[in-house]
Amino acid sequence: MYIYQHTDWPLFIWDQEAIIDKLIFLRHQQGRLMGGMQTIGLQIQNETLLQTFTEDVVKSSEIEGEILDRPLVRSSVARHLGLDSAALEVVDRNVEGVVEMVLDATQRYDQLLTPERLFGWHASLFPNARSGFRKIQIGKWRTGPVDVVSGPAWKETVHFEAPDASRVAYEMDLFLKWFNDEKNLDLVLKAALAHLWFVTIHPFEDGNGRIGRAITDLLLARSENNAQRFYSLSAHIQKDRKNYYAILEKTQKGNLDVTPWIDWFFNTLENAIDDALDTLNTILYKARFWESLAEIPLNERQRKMINRLLENFEGKLTSSKWAKIAKCSQDTAHRDILDLLTKGILFKNPEGGRSTSYFLKKL
């Protein structure tokens, strides 16, 4: 028995006491992140936005097994955000469509969600009205059955059977009325419920997962009253893809108590925001670090290497690594390092001899 076959569908219930502390914490973390991002420069904000939207588009498609060209996605995002300096001349209509949907959801988060808007998103996802080699209906509710399956054609496992197509228009009317009219639910909680509800109806022949995640992003943007996105929920769903499908299947085959789904959703969202806060802390640390060097003369190689060390530098810094990364001779690398040692910016690690390595000063 699927969840939508219960008499009280779609009256979801959950254990408020079990989720309230996590919800309060998530709201606090959202505030920390949004407040922190306002303290950094516009150029870094724009770069972070560009990275986040690119990641969101790439990873949401990857969840469905579709691999998009990351540079083309980044270029398309840049173009749509007006950051033309980061855009390429090449345009891929399939990439453009996904980007348009994601940006419409987040940049117009305060607009009503209507059938026409969803039909537009669906048409953007499938500009040629094809999913792979298969012709599909676009810009309209599905008219046939849809199952979520895995495995080879001769040994398929059916994980979920969507409601009959004859019910879709009615189910979507209910969903959209709730989505647009329900004002009493916290919007982060509403995002969790909306995602589950939409993908359970499965109103389109294909693309339901990506559209469901765009709907989720819309509500998260609305919860922050901000179109700027500094974290990607889709990236963290993709990391936990196996459990994402498992908890969806379990919930869709369960009763109307969706507490476990909400708990999984909140945990995944927390991980996404935590990653963004870590990135923010790195940005702020870098800014403070460079402020501490404001009066110290440095050449371009030194600046480049310090930036590398402030990011995710793998292993230990040696003179040979310096020479390779900075594309200079070993003697030049040695002089650059010696200069930074003298200025108290680099320090030697305890081990010496052939394994001499260096580390950056701590603030």
Main attributes of the structure:
2 domains, mainly alpha, two-stranded antiparallel sheet, Arc Repressor Mutant, subunit A, 363 residues, Fic-like fold
Structure description:
With 363 residues, the protein is mainly alpha-helical. The chain folds into two domains: 3-285, Fic-like fold; 296-360, Arc Repressor Mutant, subunit A (Orthogonal Bundle). It is 60% helix and 5% strand. It contains 14 helices and six strands. The chain has helices spanning 16-37, 42-63, 70-81, 93-107, 115-125, 165-181, 187-201, 208-224, 233-239, 241-252, 259-292, 300-310, 319-326, 330-342, and strands at residues 130-131, 134-135, 147-150, 157-161, 346-348, 358-360. The protein has a two-stranded antiparallel ribbon with strand order 1-2. A hairpin with a 2-residue loop joins strand 1 and strand 2. Helix 1 (16-37) packs parallel to helix 11 (259-292) and helix 2 crosses helix 4. The model has no long low-confidence stretch (mean pLDDT 93).
